[in-house]
Amino acid sequence: MTATTREQKIEQARLATQDGRFWEAVEQYTEVLANSDPQTNDPKEKNSRLISLKERGDLLGELGEQVAALAAYEQYYLEAGTSQHAVEALALIGIRSRGLGQYGRSITACQEALDLSTALNYTPGRAKALVGLGGTYLLQGEVNLAINYLNQANALFEQLNDTYGQAQSTNQIGIAYATTGHFYKAIQAFENSLTLARQIERHSGLVACLNNLGECYQLLFATDKALDCHREGLALAESAEFRLLEADLCRNLGLDLAQKEQWPESVAYLQRAKTLAEEIRAPEIYFHTLYALARVSLAQGQLEGRDYAQVLLDSATEPGRSRWHQANGLYALGCYEKLAGNVSTAEELWQRAIFLAHETDNRVLLWQLHAALAQIAQQPNLAAVHNRIAAEVIQQIAEPFTDESLKAEFLGAGPITAVLNQLPKDS
Q1: Are 173 and 189 in contact (CB under 8 A)?
Q2: What is the reported pTM?
């Protein structure tokens, strides 16, 4: 393949990507790689290979082919002609390793990218390494550390006028705020990221923002807003064949519909999410989906849903797994123990979950755990303490909102009023 033909193929791939013909773009990049020499000393041929490896990896990741994407980035690193290319490759290896649940490898690769980019004074690489580290620490429940890295990355992307990078870091910052129950800040971050994603016409970024924004509304019991975001996102994900995002959107739609007690539709979406997550080897989405299935089965009083909670807890307690999922597993399993009449076992599981929820600053789980403990407390004074703590956390979540209708929808939701109505009348 001549240099001109390679350039033509790469241009065709770029046009296909812009038009949303992602698999066609993958094929064009694959053809460039198949018809070029990994050992070449020709600068133009080498550059064509590096472009193709990186772009092909990006597309495969978005299309849910995470293992193939990681392989492309590993080859990109092996062929990196300059230290700057090595930084880019290491950051991408770190981010994709995270998606496969390989957190240790992710941190090692991103930290190496950060050290090398700092030594080279290569600001774009430093920003990408920082956002990679922030995202991985976030999944491990190290939220404060994650936000520190993500804010540093965002400042560098702004300095570089890198709109795509800003959209990526802002979205991750939104996730950090959402996981700690700071939904007012999270919604602001996701709306900003959504605006940036629309500007650069980055299809996957747009879908991710819709998914995350909708999940905020879901956790605030603004179910109609959540459904609007998730249905729009799923239509886009299906059209583009973004299977990773499709899986998580199905999970969220299942939870949205559960809030409306549309059980058959809810379970169908959740089972679809579970199947997809298993197929594309996406452990984060798989664990979140197990938790969702456990909760939806519980809401219907189905004891067989206990198996989802048990698998989640067993998987989450393996070395290197997130404390976030472990806390969720403990809470869900405790709910099933309570349903079976094993109150003391439920209390023990929930106490362990409270410790982890505090460690990860998971406010949503904290109020749910204290509300649950209030229901089984043997002494009225202890029940009142748990209920007061649950109510205080709820008020902390609601207080910053200036959107009064959204605040009212949250405070008026059944699970919330069940807590607030237990407060003494003079509170």
Answers
A1: yes
A2: 0.94
